[in-house]
Design a protein that fits this description.
about 400 residues; alpha/beta; Serine Threonine Protein Phosphatase 5, Tetratricopeptide repeat
C-alpha cells in the first residue's frame, strides 16, 4: 500500500514537471516559470523543476531584453508603452524567481545577479506619459467623435503613467469623454388628431436601455440641457389612433331541465291503489320541467395606435432608418342575467350569471393601455438599428 502511494505521488510530480517542460517548449516561458516556482516551494530540492525554471527564466529574459533593446534603439515614443510593460515584466519575474533561489541545477547551486529595473521603468513611464499626453492633445484638436474617444484612451494612459505630472489632465480627460459621447434624443411626435396627455408620452418613453447604450452612446428621453447638442434624434411618430365605439351585444339562451316533483299512486281499473307482492302501495315518480332564460351581454371595445420610429442623424442631417410600429388593446367582457328558475342552468351558465356588467373604459384609458405593447415595439425598432448609432 505504501509503495502504491509513493508511486502515485512520484507520478504526480513527474506529470507536473512534464507539463512545465511542455509549457517551456511551446514558448510559454512565464507559465513554465510560475509552475516551476510553485513546485519548488513545495519541494525545494526538485532537480527537474529547478532545471526547467533555470532554462525558462534565461530564455524569457533573453527574449524580453532582445525586444526592449530593439524598441529603445528605434527611439519611437509610441514604443514606450511596450517598453514599460517589458521592464515591469522583467522586474516581476525576477521578484518571483528570487523566492526560490538558490537553485540546485545539475549538482550545482545557481543564483542570479540582481538587476535594478526601476530606472528603466521610470524613464519608460515618463516618455510614455509625454507621448500619450501630447498625442491626446493633438487628437482633441481634430474635433471628431472618434478622435475624442481615442484622446480619452490616450489621456487616460498618460494619467496612469504620469503620476500627477500634468495637473490639468483630469479636466482634459473629462472633456474628451464628454465630447466623445454620441447622444440620442428620443421624442414622441404626435401626428394624430388627438391631443394626448403628457403623462401618456412620458410613460411611452419609459424604455429599458440595457443593450442599447454603451460606453460612447447615451439615450436621453427629454432635453436635459439647452447646451447639449444631440447627434441623433429618434422620433416616435404616432400617425393614427383609432378607438372603436362601445359595443354591447346580447343573446338569449333557453335552458330546460326535467326534475322529480313528488309521486303518484298506480290505480287499477276500478280506481283503487294497486299493491305490490309485499302488500305495499305502488308509486311512480312525477316529473316537471324547469325553464330559465340566460341573457348574455357581451361588451367590446378596441384601440389601436399605428406609427413608425425614425432614426435621424444630425451631423449630417439625414434619415437613417424608418421602422413601422403598432399596438392594440382590446376590452372584452362577458356577463349574464337569468330570467326564470336558475336551477335549470348548467354549471357554465351558473358561472356566467355571477359575472356583472362593468363600465366601459374611456377612450384615453384604452389608448394608455396600448403603451404596454407599444413600448416593446419601440424598443425593438431601436434595438434592431442600434448599429447605425455610434
Amino acid at each position: 500500500m505504501k509503495n502504491a502511494i509513493y508511486l502515485l505521488i512520484t507520478a504526480l510530480i513527474l506529470s507536473s514537471c512534464g507539463s512545465s517542460k511542455k509549457m517551456m517548449q511551446m514558448g510559454n516561458y512565464d507559465a513554465a516559470i510560475n509552475k516551476s516556482v510553485k513546485q519548488l516551494r513545495k519541494k525545494p530540492d526538485s532537480p527537474k523543476d529547478a532545471d526547467i525554471l533555470d532554462r525558462a527564466y534565461r530564455l524569457a529574459n533573453e527574449q524580453d531584453q532582445e525586444r526592449v533593446r530593439f524598441l529603445e534603439r528605434e527611439n519611437n515614443p509610441n514604443n514606450y508603452d511596450e517598453v514599460f510593460a517589458i521592464y515591469s515584466r522583467l522586474k516581476n519575474r525576477q521578484s518571483l524567481v528570487r523566492t526560490v533561489l538558490p537553485l540546485n541545477v545539475a549538482g550545482r547551486q545557481v543564483d542570479y545577479e540582481y538587476v535594478d529595473y526601476d530606472t528603466q521603468i521610470i524613464k519608460a513611464k515618463r516618455i510614455a506619459a509625454e507621448y500619450y499626453y501630447g498625442s491626446g492633445q493633438e487628437l482633441m484638436k481634430t474635433g471628431t467623435k472618434d478622435a475624442y474617444r481615442q484622446a480619452f484612451i490616450e489621456m487616460s494612459k498618460a494619467q496612469e503613467y504620469s503620476g500627477g505630472m500634468y495637473p490639468e489632465l483630469n479636466e482634459l480627460i473629462e472633456e474628451a469623454r464628454f465630447k466623445g459621447i454620441s447622444r440620442v434624443l428620443v421624442r414622441v411626435n404626435n401626428l394624430t388628431h388627438m391631443k394626448l396627455d403628457p403623462v401618456f408620452e412620458q410613460d411611452l418613453l419609459e424604455i429599458d436601455t440595457r443593450n442599447l447604450e454603451n460606453d460612447w452612446v447615451e439615450y436621453h428621453f427629454k432635453h436635459l440641457n439647452e447646451d447639449i447638442a444631440y447627434d441623433y434624434d429618434i422620433l416616435v411618430n404616432l400617425e393614427m389612433i383609432t378607438v372603436s365605439p362601445d359595443e354591447v351585444n346580447e343573446k338569449d339562451e333557453l335552458f330546460k331541465k326535467k326534475v322529480e316533483d313528488g309521486f303518484e299512486y298506480v290505480l287499477d281499473a276500478n280506481g283503487n291503489v294497486m299493491k305490490d307482492t309485499a302488500g305495499n302501495d305502488i308509486k311512480l315518480p312525477k316529473y316537471k320541467t324547469l325553464q330559465c332564460t340566460m341573457i348574455e351581454t357581451h361588451q367590446f371595445k378596441s384601440a389601436r395606435i399605428d406609427g413608425n420610429v425614425e432614426i435621424l442623424s444630425n451631423n449630417p442631417k439625414k434619415l437613417i432608418r424608418k421602422e413601422p410600429i403598432g399596438a392594440e388593446h382590446i376590452f372584452d367582457h362577458a356577463s349574464a342575467r337569468a330570467v326564470g328558475d336558475v336551477e335549470a342552468l348548467d354549471e357554465e351558465a351558473l358561472y356566467m350569471i355571477e359575472q356583472e356588467a362593468i363600465p366601459f373604459p374611456n377612450d384615453f384609458e384604452m389608448i394608455f393601455n396600448c403603451t404596454e405593447t407599444l413600448k416593446p415595439a419601440i424598443r425593438q425598432g431601436i434595438y434592431r438599428n442600434r448599429q447605425f448609432i455610434y
